[in-house]
Structures are given as C-alpha cells and as structure tokens.
Design brief:
single chain; alpha+beta; Thrombin, subunit H; Pdz3 Domain; 4 domains; six-stranded antiparallel barrel; 12 helices; 27 strands; elongated
Amino acid sequence: MRENKSVTRWGLFFVSLALTAIIFAAIGFGVSNVVSVRRDVDHSLPAPQVTYTQAVSLPPTPITQSGESPFVAVVEKSYDAVVNISSNRRVQSRYHEMYDDFWRRFFKMPDREQVIPSFGSGFVVRDDGYIVTNNHVVDGGEDITVTLSDKSTHKATVVGADQPTDLAVLKIETNRRLQTVEFGNSSDMRVGDWVLAIGNPFPSLGLDRTVTVGVVSGKGRSQLSFGSETPIYQDYIQTDASINPGNSGGPLINLEGKVVGVNSAIASPSGGSVGIGFAIPSDLAKQIVSEIITEGKVARGYLGVLPRNLTTDEAEMVGLDRLMGVYIDEVTPGSPAAVGGLRNDDVISTFNGQEINGEQDFRLRVAAAKNGEEVKLGIIRRGKQQQVTVVLADREAALADYTPATPSTGNKPAESENVSSNWLGMTVADCSQELAYSMGVDYHEGAIVVSVDGRSPADVKGVVPGTIIVEIDYVPVKGKDDFEKVAKDIGNRDRAIAFHVFDVTGRIGYVAIKPQ
C-alpha cells in the first residue's frame, strides 16, 4: 500500500509539472503576440531556432552596367569599418524565482549580483580609433570590448554619451590606422531610396557583420517609447532593411557608401525583425558625435517653453490654413522665452526664418542652438503675426535650477439659478469669489462654467465646471451677459472659436472649440 501511495504522489507531482508547463507555454504564446517597439541590443539572448521558409519574390535590385549589384561596392567600401561591441552589466537577481518566497522565508537567501553580457554594433568614424554606437549599447556596461573586422579585440573607453539622442562615442587604442566610414546627409534621402544595414545580429550564432538591404520606408518618425530610456529628441528614419538584436549602433548606409543613419530600434511582436526598423538620422548624429569628440559632452540651447503640436481647430483659430508651428502651453518664469517676451498661448511659426514643422522639429532646432545664441522667432499672438528675438541659455544649467509650480486643485460643482443659456454644450454664471470658492478654483473676473453636457463641443475640448472664461474670440468677457452677447454675435459660424480661459488648475490658456 505504501508503494502505491508513493507512486500516486509522484504521479500527481509530474502531472502538476506538466500542467505548469502548459500554462507557461500558453502565457508565452500570448506575450509573443504583443507588438512592441524595442531596442535591438542583444542582452545574452538565447540562440534563435533556425527555420526554413518558402522563398518570396522581392523587387528587382539595381544592376550596374557590368552586371554587378551596386551593393557589392558599397559593402566592400564600408564593411571593415563596422565593429562588434560587447560589455558586461551587473544586475541584482533572486535565487530560484519560481519558489522565491519559499527560499527567502525559510533560508533567508539574499538577492545576488549577476553579470549579463550585452552585445551591439558600431562603426569607425576616425582612423585613430573613434567609434560611434548607441548609448543603450554601452550605458551601465563594464569591460567594454570592441572586435574589429580582423577579429582583434580592444578595450574601449566611453568618450561621451548622450541619452537624449541615444548616441555614444567610444575610443580604442591601436597602432594602425583603421578603416572608416563617413557621414552623409540624411536630409537628401527620399522615401524609397535603397539603404544597407550592417551589424552583428544574434552574436551567439556568430553572424557578425551581416549585411541586409532595404529601402527608406519613412522619415521623421517620432513619439516612440522605450520606457524610462526614451530619447527626448526623435527624428528617426524608418527602414525595412532587416535589423535584429545585436544590430544596435550599426550604420545604415546609402548607395554612395555613406552613413545616413545609426540603427537603433525595431517594432516587433517577437523580438526579431518584421521589416520595421528605426535609425537616428545622420544629420543629427554627426552634430552630436562631433561635439562629443571635441567637448566630451553635448551642450544644448534652452528657451523655456512647453511646446506641443497644434490641433486642426487651433490652427484655424489663429488663422493658419494648415498645420505648422507649435503651440506654447506654458512659458517658464524667468526663462529666456519670458525675458524675450513670449507668452502662454503664442504660436511659434518660424525659427530664424525657417518654418517649423511641429513639436519635434522645434525641439531639435532649439537644442541645436547654443548658449548665448540670439534667435528670431516668428509668432502668432491673438491672430496677429509678430517677431521676437530671444537669447538662449544653456539647457543643462537651466533645468538644474528649475522647480515646477504647484497648481491649485478642486472642481466641486456649484448650483446657481443665475446662469446663461446653453451654448456649445455649456452654461455659465457671473464669477464671484463665493462661487469660485464653492467650486474649488481661484477667483478671476469672467464667466464661470457651471455645467457641461456630455459629448458636446465644450466637453470634447476638455472644458469642465469651474473653468473661467475671460475672452471669446479676443472679446473680453466679464460675466454671463457678455458670454451670451458674444454667442449671439457669432451665431452659427462653423469656424473654430477661441476661448481664453483659466482652467481648474489656475493655468490660463486658449481653447479652440468648433461648433458641431
């Protein structure tokens, strides 16, 4: 009987293990179908399974008069300048993760330090040993080693790194001149142009210096997220040239053999390439790299505004016939912008005479300028075009001194019989100190919103009870009577209407509301 019981227990144990394996397999399948944007650096990834698939038809590649693919000459020109970069990262890891509570409770097992190898790519830009790569390839790494095309290995030092753009420069010492590649102009690249990516995908398989070919799929890609390490300045080139873990920091090369991008990330449901890769444009990279080599760090201009892209209604509100420029949500007190005369709700349309194509373009232009540089900004204020001159400060020093203000809070609904008729889904009353206090907002002369209909034009634009309206279409509003008069004068206009308001946090700004 004991023997039978023992067998039964072991049988249950193995059944439990089998069920656990099935559950984890199901979880893994679910996770693998989540599309994410990820860095393509290899943190000791396990060797992928090599599978064979049916060949697919690709568009014909260009052929030279001699019958040779032009890619061959490009590769021969740049191949030896591409390097493999490896380093070690120290991380805290727990013993026996599956039974972690058990081990810690009964055996008091501490967390342990684990060394994880990390691999990436880079390319030589100066024959005396300067190498460009991604910041995330070497950030936090120790024992950084560079392997050249002849398989020789060299210890590398970090000359400088720039997290806001995800770029870094390394230096190795060698007794010979190295093969280099030079930067081209990414601004000259067009969607559809051929490009080559060279790098070291899946180093555990020994696939160093793999060449893949594709086209420029898009330009000016931004708003990609990499968690806490997301670069501030994004202007990526998108390519369908295959990029995989280990390719980070490698060059994206045009048919002239010049670097037009630094391969940095992929969008993937599985961690491997699906034809959506991103590279830092060379026009940005060469500026950052040059400054790191000469100064050891990157200095950026500082204006002191909170910019964002305009909505279609806001562009219409300020008189623009298309989306361009940036809307200034906030001007930092005492900043170069404040000293130069910029105000909240200004629209900046040009920077030193050049049109601004959105928030990222604006941020890059300000960052590229230097401390003490005088810049001319074309602005639109209250529907009129003006120009202001601002002297920029140093971004790093300015941000070190910045302390954000704490806004007031509260939006308790109020009851009032003396309210206006409904317009655009909201009703208002004369703003008194008592009414403002009862709604939990600071008092300002104007018309205070007491109700907002759900899904109305006002609701869609974020207007809530407690919002205080001080102007409509640049006409002063001192109470509900002014509110109703302006509403009557505007009538059934279908163009966006400019509301100058204090929101419930106490911040003043414009809201563009378009009648439905």
